[in-house]
Every structure is written in structure tokens, then in C-alpha cells.
Amino acid sequence: MARFQFKLPDIGEGIAEAEIVAWHVKVGDEVAEDQQLADMMTDKATVEMESPVAGKVVELAGEVGDMIPIGSVLAVIETVGADRAAETPADSKDERPLADGAVEATPEQAKEIPVTRGVEQAPAPKAVAEPKLEPEVAKAAHVLASPAVRARARDLGIDLNQVRARDGRIRHADLDAFILNQGGSVSARGPAPKRANEVIKVVGLRRKIAENMAEANRRIPHFTLVEEFDVTALEEARAMMNRDRGSNPKLTVLPFLIAAMCRALADYPMLNATFDDEAMAVTRHGSVDMGIATQTDNGLMVPVIRGAEGLSVWQIASEISRLSEAARTNKASREELTGPSITISSLGPMGGIASTPVINPPQVAIIAVNKIEEKLVPIDGDIEVRKRMNLSLSCDHRVVDGWDAASFMQDLKPLIENPLRLLS
After folding, report:
1. Residues 80, 4 contacting (CB under 8 angstroms)
2. Into which CATH architecture does domain 2-84 fall?
3. Of residues 24, 222, 285, 397, which has the active-site annotation?
4. Per CATH, which fold does 204-422 belong to?
5. Which of 34, 66, 94, 401 is flagged as catalytic?
6. Prior bond of 362 cis (ω within 30°)
7. Could you report the per-residue pLDDT of 299-353, keeping only the tens digit for each?
8. How far is it, in rounded angstroms, from Cα 378 to Cα 365?
9. Does residue 401 carry a catalytic annotation?
């Protein structure tokens, strides 16, 4: 058999090495031509490596997380040759032909098959044990109690035979009395099984996220401002527009917030900026290239809506849908994943009441969307139920002053709380 060395090809201009982020085969596996071998990640993209030949994997270069130089051997594959096709049954290690055409068992097989000369022995039938009812179970079966009471007792680890029933049937009140007599302590099914320690190597996109977050925390002096907004009118407008949306994507709160941010940022260019701390230079961007923090199976990714200030609410919603899907399916291009001038992050209904988002350098600001809650709010002497939501704005204090951040949040209020302004 021949051995084929699959070398890591040049997968991008200026790329000297790539990281192994996933193996799809292991040593000993049979692979087909064009079958996926591994995922390799560079600073620019994640690339799938496919086998150019069919055969058996005999060597793999490194483990997940290792860096592999371009041109070095990634895998060695033993290709199928004519000598395998010519192999005869006589060469087989598993069987030996006999004179009458039968097959002699190998020594390993012979250990498993009892043989008596001249007599073919059938295995003796196994005796079937009659199911036995444990005494405790049999005794408890005669206790009168509803299924709900039995389930509660089982969860609490209480033997119903030890519970005194006032009228012959055990009720929840009888369980309560039993617990009180025990000093309020009962064991609920015992402790959960202890989980073994698990070591997970931080690789690929998760490693890059970790590096970026550590760098951001080390170099950027963050401050966070949280402001509450009344989104009752926004939610009403959103529901009305969704009823008549036709072929448009379903609107969430996010497109409205982005549209409001774009309008307010025109007066606060210090927030729509990037900071080169080595050159000590700030670039205030004319266009709002809005980063959308998107959770994927591989970790957090930030696709970018280019020129968001020139898009309608419907157009922003379409871009969010398109870019989020591309990020989750690993189809987003490098252009779509780089160069935001400011970022918005939202966990939707899972968001807390407040958060402290971490800035993605070289940006100088990020805004996080927290969950919507109904609250009793005093309005003109009356109490009304209103939908309220907090926005959390984190800024780089080296280039953004607290006054500017607070003023920006106040200018957002009339845009978010009166959404018709965003539609004109």
C-alpha cells in the first residue's frame, strides 16, 4: 500500500500557520475522497480540509489547539492498492478453510464456543427468575395515598409506612406533620451523582474571544451607564407593524433601537469611533457600521450592518436576519465580520435588568439591551402598568466623558419612547 502525505495548503495570502480547531477523523478511520478531515482556523477565516484521496488514516499532525505551519504534513493516509484486492481467503487471519469447505474458528473464537467431540451441543436454556417484590415495596403498596402524595414522598425520601394517617389515607398534611416530627430534615433522594472533572482546551473562536476580552479589560478603562426607557409605545408600534408586515421579516425591538442609535449618534461622534492607543489617535466615523453581537455554537460573533444610518427599520431587520444566519452557519464573509464602529448586544427575554458589556477594541462604546418588564408607574397622579427596559452603555473613559455618555442616553429617550419619529 502507498502512503499519501496530505500537506496543509496555502489557505490565505500572508498566512504562515493555522490552528486545528476540530478533527473529523481519527487514526484508523477509513476515509473517502473529499471527506472532511479537519477544520483549520486562521486570523481571517475557518477553512474545512478535505481528503484528496480515499484510504485509511494512519497519522494525524497534532491535537486540537495546535498551530500547524503551512506546507507541513497534516495527515498521512494509506491508500488502497492492488495488493489488498488480490488478498485471498487463505491469507485471512480470521478464518482457516477446511477440507470439506467449513471454516475453522480462530483461537480467539474457539475460546468462546464449547465443543464436545462428535456431538453438537446446544446451549442450556437459562432459568427465568420469577420477579420478586421487595418487602418494603409490597408493604408500601397497601398504604392508602394519592399518586401526588406518593410522588412527593418519593421525592423527599420518605417511607410511607412510617407516616401516621389520621383517617386511614395518607394526605399532604400527614407528610407535613411527619417532616415536623423529624425536625424539618428529610433527605430528597440523596445527593446527585458527583460529576467528574473535565478539562476542555480553549481553542479556535473561543480562544480568540478570550484573548480579545482579556486585552480589552487590560487596556480599556470602562465605565457603564444604565438608563431606564419606557417602551410601551414602541411595543405597540412593533405589534401593529408585524400584523401587516407582508413579506418583511418579523420585527424585534432591536431594529428600532439601532435606528434610534443611528439618529442620536449624529450628535455624538465621539461614541461612533475607534481608538488607536499606540498612535494615540481617535477616528470618528461618518458612517454607522453597527456590530450585532450574535451567539453561535462556536461562540460570540459580531457581524456588521454597514451604513446602518441610511436604512429603514424594515431594512435593518432584514440585515439582522441575514447576517445572524450567516454567522450561525459559518457562512459570513470576513468583510461581514470585521470593522464595526460601535456594537449593540442583546440577550432578548433572557437579558437581566442591567449589565456591564465589555467593549470590543478598537471601538470605544457598546450598548447592551436588557429585558422588558411590566411595572407600575405613576403618571399624572395615576398609576399605570407600563413596559420598561434598561439600556447599558459602556464607554472607553480615555476618549468618552461621562457627560457625553449621559447626554447621549437622554437624547435616545424621545426616539425610543416615541417610535413614530423613527418611521418618518
Report:
1. no
2. Beta Barrel (2.40)
3. 397
4. Chloramphenicol Acetyltransferase (3.30.559)
5. 401
6. yes
7. 788 999 999 999 999 999 999 999 999 998 888 888 999 999 999 999 877 778 9
8. 33
9. yes
